[in-house]
Amino acid sequence: MAVNFPLICPEQLYPVAGVTLGWAKANIRKPNRKDLLVLALDEGATVSAVFTTNRFCAAPVIVSREHLAHVRSGGMGVRALVVNTGNANAGTGEEGLAHAHEVCSRLAQLAGVTAQQVLPFSTGVILEPLPVERLSAALPAAWATRAPAQWFDAAEAIMTTDTRAKAASRRVVIGTEQITLTGISKGAGMIRPNMATMLSFIATDAGFTQPVLDSLTKHAADRSFNCITVDGDTSTNDSFVIIATGQADLPLITSMEDPAYIVLRDAITELAQTLAQLIVRDAEGATKFITLQVEGGATLAECRQIAYAIGHSPLVKTAFFASDPNLGRILCAIGYAEIANLEVNQIDLYLDDVWVVKEGGRHPSYLEEEGQRVMQKPEITVRVVLKRGHAKAVIWTSDLSHEYVSINADYRS
Amino acid sequence: MAVNFPLICPEQLYPVAGVTLGWAKANIRKPNRKDLLVLALDEGATVSAVFTTNRFCAAPVIVSREHLAHVRSGGMGVRALVVNTGNANAGTGEEGLAHAHEVCSRLAQLAGVTAQQVLPFSTGVILEPLPVERLSAALPAAWATRAPAQWFDAAEAIMTTDTRAKAASRRVVIGTEQITLTGISKGAGMIRPNMATMLSFIATDAGFTQPVLDSLTKHAADRSFNCITVDGDTSTNDSFVIIATGQADLPLITSMEDPAYIVLRDAITELAQTLAQLIVRDAEGATKFITLQVEGGATLAECRQIAYAIGHSPLVKTAFFASDPNLGRILCAIGYAEIANLEVNQIDLYLDDVWVVKEGGRHPSYLEEEGQRVMQKPEITVRVVLKRGHAKAVIWTSDLSHEYVSINADYRS
């Protein structure tokens, strides 16, 4: 049911110098599917990440944070990432932490590095013990298949309820040097990232110092994965990682004033937006891709609060599924978004090019047929104009269909 | 699909001295259904109400607030209420206000009172003009059918997507006097009351001064309609009204210290809880009635915040629909409830009598079969123990089923 999901050719995913990828079938939850991914990084790569704000964050999130902190405090750089699907290793307590550390140690042995140079990631069912023996047993096979041109396989290896592999690649020329950016993402449900999405990894052969890459990572996350929602459920495992190998023939970027920084920041942000939007296009049961734009707000925060109130309303989402211009439901969601002193009599609402609500009431010349025409489209923009200031927020979301219920009522079976 | 919905016999709904009810078929949205209700109050009744906090509140909510404020500032008391279904008269701007005033004037003429002694209520589709002529034309018929023993008909006359009429009655003996309490409610979707529910009216023949009745109304609302959620959508029209006719042979209650106040406050609160729970039992598409109890919190607010995070999670709600003990989804919702410094390693979770999570991880002796056994029941209690303090909150909610999607994708058609 994916909505306008682009055809992704494995050949169009450019390898990134300094990164190889390998995968295996580890039988973590179901037999005979790619469920284990390893990424190996050449020495000298810089890695930055943002993680879920869920307090019940998964064991691999805790361990990845620890290992990145170790690098920041002068430890040796990250050399490998390992990702499993089928089990989130969340809600698993001390045993879960021990399992995550065990996975890092086993991969470190294969890679000839320390366990602290490995970052672990997991996605899948919560509250069940990680089958660490099956996972570890498959690591040598995954490690042995490493190659630079396997980004599409990597995207497939991290899928859970995703129906499509999510990946994209860009090339940017800076001076005379061509810089490559390639990324993958996964996620379809339990999507309301708060600092990051379920899982996304972007690599580039440009080089950045750690603080500059950290800034870039936050910049990109705030404008991409932090702007999507499927069901409002912020996952326990959300992680967004940027790897900068520095193998391109470009000077190390040490400052946010560097013109190359601006170019790459914007290119990586655009790539992250594409990867984030692919998640919404493949959202569980989605039949519509909805852009929610709230403008004229006093603050960015209030624009986002209103956009999320609309984006999370089951009534708004089912109306989109039905292609029913039952647009009072959008007004209702704006009204309960808990914005202090919101003057509803100033608010305008547009559905694509159709002016539906003028100053808080139905526009006198609004015709139901016009609303109906837009609602039948697979991609729709809702624009709310608050007239309180100059802030603006955009988020992307999907509708709520029978299939969402089916998928989530059946996911574990 | 209502869950353990009790059989309600019209004969068990006791008339309340001083209140008569009448209804009509006004063809407001659909032909040949009861869609108009009037309540007439004898002189001397005291009326208190709480309304939605939605900023896009409906025109009748604005007008009812004005008229109640007029009474409080010394105006003559409320003598009639009028309720229509099929159209919410919300998102209708100045025209909507004029329509609500017009309805009050027309009923006031019939009743021989002033328009300010009439409170209007509406429920139904938002953003469409109220068919005020059809409504007004049916008022004489509704007024003419008034009788004291028509509470069940009244409950039917305010239904929208409700599949069952919701009403309950109680009798309390104070001294030698029998006091009657009878109430009705409506609502099945767009339910996450914030000060009140869609619509509920309770009448008693006890008498209270205005400030005492106001306190009682807030007390009852906070423990009943403010503790339920179906889909998290706070309606534009929520209204909860208590009418005290003072016709019983009991002294006027002028103080919250009066022992009769305590008895009646608790009886009315219990009645309001029953009416609120009937809404959840008849929630759109509901197959389960879920009690969410969060205890050991530092504050009531944080307990409620966690309970609502669980109660609004589409993933938790679909797991209940599937009878699937996918309980990691509950931990996930607790984790993203945005509670500062929440120590997840202290948290215990019970499903009815089954101890599922101990100190943040799966309880070592928890068996999936035990979780499965509970999940198959139509009524389930989820108990979360935070161990941060002594506060406790309980809310009631329903699951998310295919039928919820069907109902809300079809509601206007």
TrEMBL record, chains A, B:
GO biological process, one term: ornithine biosynthetic process
Known EC number: 2.3.1.35, 2.3.1.1
Compartments, as annotated in UniProt: Cytoplasm
SUPFAM superfamilies noted in UniProt: DmpA/ArgJ-like (SSF56266)
Stored InterPro entries: Arg_biosynth_ArgJ, ArgJ-like_dom_sf, ArgJ_beta_C
Keywords: Acyltransferase, Amino-acid biosynthesis, Arginine biosynthesis, Autocatalytic cleavage, Cytoplasm, Multifunctional enzyme, Transferase
Residues that, per the record, bind substrate: T160, K186, T197, E284, N408, S413
Active site: T197 (nucleophile)
Site (Cleavage): A196, T197
Amino-acid biosynthesis among keywords: yes
MF term (GO), any: L-glutamate N-acetyltransferase activity, acting on acetyl-L-ornithine as donor
Major localization class: cytoplasm
Reaction it catalyzes: L-glutamate + acetyl-CoA = N-acetyl-L-glutamate + CoA + H(+); N(2)-acetyl-L-ornithine + L-glutamate = N-acetyl-L-glutamate + L-ornithine
Cellular component terms per the entry's GO annotation: cytoplasm
Site (Involved in the stabilization of negative charge on the oxyanion by the formation of the oxyanion hole): T123, G124
The protein's annotated pathway: Amino-acid biosynthesis; L-arginine biosynthesis; L-ornithine and N-acetyl-L-glutamate from L-glutamate and N(2)-acetyl-L-ornithine (cyclic): step 1/1; Amino-acid biosynthesis; L-arginine biosynthesis; N(2)-acetyl-L-ornithine from L-glutamate: step 1/4
CDD domains: OAT
EC supergroup of this enzyme: transferase
Subunit structure, interactors included: Heterotetramer of two alpha and two beta chains.
Reported function: Catalyzes two activities which are involved in the cyclic version of arginine biosynthesis: the synthesis of N-acetylglutamate from glutamate and acetyl-CoA as the acetyl donor, and of ornithine by transacetylation between N(2)-acetylornithine and glutamate.
UniProt record similarity statement: Belongs to the ArgJ family.
Protein name: Arginine biosynthesis bifunctional protein ArgJ
